[in-house]
Amino acid sequence: MYFVYILVSEVDGTLYTGQTQDINARLKLHNSGKVQSTRKKSPWHLGYFEVFNRRSDAMWREREFKKKWNTERKKRLIAHFNRIKIEVLLKSENTFLPNPLRVYDS
Fold first, then answer.
1. pLDDT, tens digit, for every residue of 48-72?
2. d(CA 75, CA 7)
3. What is this structure's pTM?
4. Which of 5, 6, 35, 101 could tie 49 with a disulfide, CB 3.0–4.6 Å?
5. Residue 94 to residues 11, 23, 25, 90: CA-CA distances in angstroms?
């Protein structure tokens, strides 16, 4: 599975969008200071994510978020996203996905 995610900086609320296969490891990497583009605004927390079966679909969605969605639109999406889904996922170590969670498969 592939994840498209939006991180929120706890320093100033800046948003960062990316995609990965391991969302837990990627969040830890961002918070470790090893990712140049997020180093200065650490710590980060997971604000939103979507799940895809194919990497190409996740990459397409990531580009869509980056090119077609402005910051305010992303913030509205995060505000409406159910925080419980994120907490369950982070505790699960990717062994299952909470329901109902949309998995995109084309």
1. 999 999 999 999 999 999 999 999 9
2. 11
3. 0.77
4. 5
5. 27, 8, 10, 7
